[in-house]
Amino acid sequence: MPPAAIAVVRVSGPRAGAALRALAGRVPATRRASLAELSDAAGAPLDRALMLWFPGPATATGEDLAELHLHGGRAVVAAVEAALAALPGLRRAEAGEFTRRAFLNGRIDLAEAEGLADLLAAETESQRVQALGMASGHVSRAVEGWQARLLTLMAGAEAELNFGDEEDVQLLDDCAHRLCDGMELLASELGAWLARPGAEVIAEGLSVVIAGPPNAGKSTLINALAQRELAIVSPVAGTTRDVIETPLALDGIAMRFSDTAGLRSESADAIETIGIDRAKAAVQAADILLWLGNPHDAPDHPRAILIAAQADRWRGDAAAEAVAARCDLTLSAATGEGMERLHRMIVDMARTLLPREGEAALRQRQRAALADAKDWLTVDAGSREASDLILLAERLRLAALALDRITGRAGVEDMLDTLFGRFCIGK
Question: Which residue range forms the structural domain that includes residue 132?
Fold first, then answer.
């Protein structure tokens, strides 16, 4: 948004060339920046700017495209926009309209558009890498490969149905067996993709919950992690009564850290009881649990880090030292002891929940479509369908339609309105 050093105004569509002629008196050489004096319809000067001309269809939107690189002051941009709006056939773009036109004109598919939306919203390194892979067509290329294999299987089924010898039962059985083998192999590959972490984990951040008994140092720890006074610290048991959440990024990984009410069997009042119930629910939903308390009392969680907290208070106490020996980490958020090691442990555990380098993660919509395709490709070897070419061909057709939903080639109008509304006007 202005003010800025440079502002780019883009015009897409059949009137793009006319817009350049109206403001600059000419259309420059294709794909070459040209300096121009811009004027409105009355001849009043607007700006001295660079203009570029990109004839369709080999453009970002698939249409004729013009760009004006202006000085980035608000008054300059407003004057040029007003001059363009006064020209016949031009109007201000809606949010996401340039990207939507690129999709409708076949320049990108829906998965790439979703990746671009995520790239614009990326705030951490892991979000940037994941979104860039999606926008660059990682998922789309995988879908194209699956679709090509499906087409091969479908062609084999149709050829046998249309041209095979109907009296040769053995030949039909052999064809059905080959189809089932191919479907099983493809379903297995789709299942491997579905087993990967979802893209929402990267976009929304991993949930890291700090839990333990009252006065265990939970609030002090989240304050130390956030490097600000996020939670109230008090020696009074039950001070924290609700889940306090803060977004943090560790080593480029988005996380949501939550401080919770102290867990104990008897609470002081009804309000604290509600807080304890919410704390238990947060522990259940946590991707990573930081437990500050006796390891014997720790909830059963697949990714728990057992922390002997407040080490500055119990050093030299034999009983406390014995409990600490059973923990994964000794820590003092007040003095900083163990904080660096905790940082490394959280990051190492978080990486096991994220896609490996080079792997693409699927969004919930894409996972649902892929799961449908896998279900249509899964056939019980002993069922009637396994030997019926017509039913197998129908399953292949339905699997192909499910994959089409990932790239946006069928039934996506409502989805488009939701998706492209996330973009800014300039995209």
Answer: 125-197+361-420
